[in-house]
UniProtKB/TrEMBL annotation:
PANTHER family in the record: CLARIN, CLARIN-1
Keywords noted in UniProt: Membrane, Transmembrane, Transmembrane helix
A Gene Ontology BP annotation from the UniProt entry: sensory perception of sound
Its membrane topology: Multi-pass membrane protein
Protein name in the entry: Clarin-1
Family classification: Belongs to the clarin family.
Length: 231
């Protein structure tokens, strides 16, 4: 593959990595991670609501990693309220898992930016050390993929296994019991998934540029002359 083609591939990978960093940074701060509906079970049982009447007791909830909003219906109209995870809900939610999600999401932004710099350096610079060359590109892409995967796994576990939406809906509701009706992941969650897959794609762009995976290098490639210059 010619030098121009390699530069084009690295530029493409760098643009994709930078786009991922911007998208995840935006997704980190908005409340579009989870959307769902909650049933005011206590109110529905008091009037024995069924069918269409039951709709008067179904509210909405949506939240992100820092704050969210819920609209409760208990037969007397909607009651919109906002909430914040810090410090209000720390005693209710699995705090360590939630903080881990935020940390890994932030790390994903940072590593995506680092990867962008390395891709552009390999496209227009002169990579003179192993970590400045293909091995470094593989490393940062792998770390980004790992951070993205951890975010998806931890957040999914927090929501599904720890009934996060239900705990939020019942926060400071001593007289009413709320039950989750529907629950689905919002745009921010899918942005993280797409960006994780994009970093995985970048690994194959590096391979397409003609550089072997680090674990498949032959011993001959370990000589100093082979890794001093990529081009």
């Amino acid at each position: 593959m010619s030098k121009l083609q390699k530069k084009a591939l690295f530029c493409l990978a760098g643009v994709l990595s930078f786009s991922c960093a911007l998208a995840i940074a935006a997704a980190l701060g908005i409340q579009l991670w989870i959307k769902g509906t909650v049933l005011c079970k206590t109110g529905a049982l008091l009037v024995n609501a069924t069918g269409e009447e039951l709709q008067k007791f179904i509210g909405e909830i949506q939240y992100g990693l820092f704050y969210g909003q819920r609209v409760k219906f208990c037969g007397l109209g909607g009651r919109p309220t906002t909430f914040s995870f810090f410090p209000d809900l720390l005693n209710v939610i699995p705090a360590s898992m939630h903080v881990s999600v935020i940390i890994f999401t932030t790390a994903l932004v940072a590593f995506a930016l680092i990867g962008t710099g390395f891709f552009m350096f390999n496209a227009f610079g002169n990579p003179y050390e192993t970590l400045h060359g293909p091995v470094g590109l593989y490393l940062w892409c792998f770390i980004s993929c790992s951070c993205g995967s951890l975010v998806l796994i931890l957040f999914s576990s927090e929501v599904k296994m720890h009934n996060l939406s239900e705990k939020i809906a019942n926060y400071k509701e001593g007289g009413f019991l709320f039950k989750t009706q529907t629950e689905y992941f919002g745009k921010s969650f899918w942005i993280v998934l797409v960006c994780t897959l994009t970093h995985f794609l970048n690994i194959f762009l590096i391979r397409l540029a003609g550089y072997e995976f680090p674990f498949s290098k032959s011993k001959d490639m370990d000589s100093p002359g082979a890794i001093d210059f990529m081009y």
